[in-house]
Amino acid sequence: MKDLSIIAYCSIKDNTIKLNNTTRVAKDPKLSFLEFAKKAYKEQVLDYPKFFKMDNLSKLAFLASDVLCNSDIIKNEHKEHMAIVLSNRSSSLDTDRKYQATIIDPKNYYPSPALFVYTLPNITIGEISIRHKIKGENAFFVLNKFNAEILTQYAISLIENKKSNLVLCGWVDYDEKKYNAFMYIVARNGIYKHSKEFINKIFNSN
Amino acid sequence: MKAIYISSNNILSPLGFNTAENISQISREKSGIKLQNIIGKTPSYAALIDNDYLNQVFKAEAICDIYDFNKLEKMMLLSLIDTISKASFSITDRTLLIIATTKGNIDILNSKINHISKNRAYLPELGKQIKKFFGFKNEPIILSNACVSGVLAIAVAKRLIQNEFYDNAFIVGGDLISEFTISGFQSLQAISDRPCKPFSKYRNGITLGESAASLAITSTNNSEKTIQIIGDGSSNDANHISGPSRNGEGLYRSIQSALKESKTSPESLDYISAHGTGTSYNDEMEAIAFNRAKLENVPVNGLKGYFGHTLGASGIIETIVGLHSMNNNTLYTSLGTDELGVSVPLNVIRNTQKKNIKTILKTASGFGGCNTAIVFKKIKF
Q1: Which end of chain B is more exposed for a tag (fewer CB within 10 A), N or C?
Q2: Is A186 on the interface with B (CB under 8 A)?
Q3: What phi and psi, each to the nearest 5 degrees, are found at residue A74?
Q4: Is B320 found in the same domain as B179?
Q5: Residue A104 in 3-state DSSP?
Q6: Are residues B362 and B256 part of one domain?
Q7: Which residues lie closer than 8 Å to B65 by C-beta, 6 or more apart?
Q8: CB spacing of B187 vs A130 below 8 angstroms
Q9: Residue of B nearest to A83 (CA)
């Protein structure tokens, strides 16, 4: 089994977006996630009004993936077969609670289809796939905490089983106003080492 | 790559709490779907597990207090008790646990449920309960990938065992019928006013079901006759988050990936277990994808007329029925399919019949644009 590499990584935390540990967007940490997301969209994205229909978890995943999936990092023709493997602890629970609030009172019952479709964590993968026309393998793992071991095991399996040459891996969690996103792209050749230790190091330092 | 086999399995559904009972009901074309009063004033069709019966069996089999667990946990634990007791291996530090579920203990967001901590709405907390009950050594992977969760869990287990990260795995899938899911699918106008009718001209939506199902998967085979997982694939439509692709792109690509890995030609497939939800768009999309893959002549059924759409459990239940189709050399009726209602040819099974079945394809598609396909083969040593 040949060692794999990481070609780039990014994080979104405390209203700051970093690519390969270099700050790309930094906003006042006191802003709400929604205010921050709107500002980050205006600086980094601009051309994708569907962004405003997304729930918080999808907005977070979208912003992180948009930093990584640009043509300086991966060629457009390579994107189509890229696999996406995301994980978190809270699944879609933040939106689940909002949806539950719409059905809790029989006298004030207004279930919203626009909210309901976001009550699955893998919708984040769907949004990223639509944005970047990615038709590769998908998996969303819900784990007790960030788990570099499971992510590396599955990325290796996808590449060794010839299902993909590139894997976008990561952690996107949104729960009661607390959020954290971390993503990286695994490939056969790249700058950084694809090891549990290195991934834990960059997850913790970002 | 290592060969991967299925060792034991269980279906816990309204048709019965073990696989044999379920297969016997299917062979008699019995459905678990009934008219129920779950939410609001309008009754709707659903396949529900009787709570009193579940508690009675749980007390006897699990020897635990019924108030320590939520309904879904009891279903999953009971299903796994059966599968683990019949598996050819026992739990070690090289055993993986995968839990396939879309919503887990979602019913506890409802304030009327008080005997369980609200914390158990977090899926890893559900995972902890199952891990602790059986003494699994590794952290469980909870796969929450919409309606492909069950089928994808089988592919994930196979891949991780083939790459020698684990020796074997137990997979359990399940979801509840709750106000949450019923109201949500109602708001999307996706619920049928009759028991669902996969691939029928008269289909008008899904019927929800609740079940749990489990499988044991291993790289060590020690029986003469067994079933091998020979290929798998998954692909995203990259088209729409809640509607399937019109040309079946992701499903077509998943099937191609699974056929390629398994070195199986379309004409050598003996049976397809489709997703067959009974919605207008899904069934049409599947028919188009099967035609693109030159599978229009292969006998196909949708099993949701028996179980309803059981979300996280559906792919595992339908796979297990497929394994028994192979073992019994029997194609089971696609319950609810009357007049074919898709725009392209499809060989839907209308009468339960005998046929020599060696190789089958299982597919699933779901929200988020995800699709998964797996090829299974019957092996005699």
Answers
A1: C
A2: no
A3: -130, 140
A4: no
A5: coil
A6: yes
A7: none
A8: no
A9: B235
Residue of A nearest to B150 (CA): A139
Q: What is the pTM of this model?
A: 0.98
Q: Is A2 on the interface with B (CB under 8 A)?
A: no
- Domains held by chain B: number: 2
Residue A120 to residue B235, Cβ atoms within 8 A:
no
Nearest to B233 among A129, A160, A163 (CB): A163
Domain membership of residue B35 as a residue range: 4-218
Which of B187, B218, B249 corresponds to the end of one domain?
B218
Residue A113 sits in a domain whose CATH number is: 3.40.47.10
- CB contact A98 to B (< 8 Å): no
- CATH code assigned at B327: 3.40.47.10
Note down the domain range covering A85. Answer: 5-205
Same domain membership, residue B321 and residue B271: yes
Q: Rounded to 5 degrees, what are φ and ψ at B86?
A: -100, -5
Q: Looking at beta carbons, which residues of chain A come within 8 Å of B44?
A: none
C-alpha B249/C-alpha B239 separation (Å) is 9
Give per-10-residue mean pLDDT for chain B (381 aa): 96 98 98 88 90 97 93 98 97 98 96 86 98 98 98 98 98 96 94 97 98 98 91 97 94 98 98 98 98 98 98 98 98 97 98 97 98 96 72
Do B193 and B246 lie in a common domain? no
pLDDT per residue as tens digits for the range A88-105: 999 999 999 999 999 988
Whether residue A82 lies within 8 A of chain B, CB to CB, comes out as: no
Structural domain count, chain A: 1
Task: Provide mean pLDDT across the span A30-51.
Answer: 95
Cβ distance B163 to A103 less than 8 Å, yes or no, reads no
Residue of B nearest to A124 (CA): B368
Are B196 and B206 in contact, with CB atoms under 8 Å apart? yes
CB B211 within 8 A of CB B317: yes
ipTM above 0.85, yes or no: yes
For A138-178, the pLDDT digits (tens) are 999 999 999 999 999 999 999 999 999 999 999 999 999 89
d(CA B365, CA A126): 12
Residue B200 shares a structural domain with residue B286? no
